[in-house]
Amino acid sequence: MRCGNYAEAALCPVCSDPRRDTGLVTVLEKPSDIAAFESTGRYRGVYHVLGALLSPLDGIGPEQIHLASLEARLSSGEVRELVLATPASTEGDATALYVQRLARPHGTPVTRLARGLPVGGELEYSDSLTVLRAFEGRIPA
Fold it and tell me: Does the N-terminal or the C-terminal CB of the chain have fewer CB atoms within 10 Å?
């Protein structure tokens, strides 16, 4: 399996779609995370599902998640950009850092999803880390 998504054939439905941009790869924790991107109707890239996040306390190291297949994709030279879409958690951040370091020798640009305040969210109910990330990720008005 190339991407780690559920599939009945060698390639999942997303990877086998010729209209997809195979140079834009979004890294996710689990196959169900794909639905969030697909629901937008605007994402035209492909995915790489890790199957889990790095968690040494739970015995999950680099060998237990789909990093070898990601390394193979990076080595092919086909990946133009790697988008990290791991959760905002200790495990998600550690996994993102590991993937970023994995991509560095290949010269592949790595980006991360923006984080911050949800639409319709109240500032007074947001935690300090969310407010800080929203401030650091601000964009021109």
Answer: C
Cα 48 off chain centre by: 7
55: DSSP letter: B
H runs (alpha helix) in the chain: 34-38, 68-75, 90-103, 128-136
97/121 Cα distance (integer angstroms): 28
Q: Which CATH class is domain 21-114?
A: alpha beta
pLDDT in tens, 46-56: 999 999 999 99
* Domains of the chain, residue spans: 21-114
Nearest to 23, CA basis, from 74, 67, 78: 78
The residues that bridge with 82 in the sheet, in sequence order, are 25, 110
Q: What is the pTM of this model?
A: 0.86
Distance in angstroms (rounded) separating the CA atoms of residues 127 and 141: 23
Kindly compute the dihedral angle of the four CA atoms of residues 43, 67, 3, 114, in this order, to the nearest 10 degrees. Answer: -10
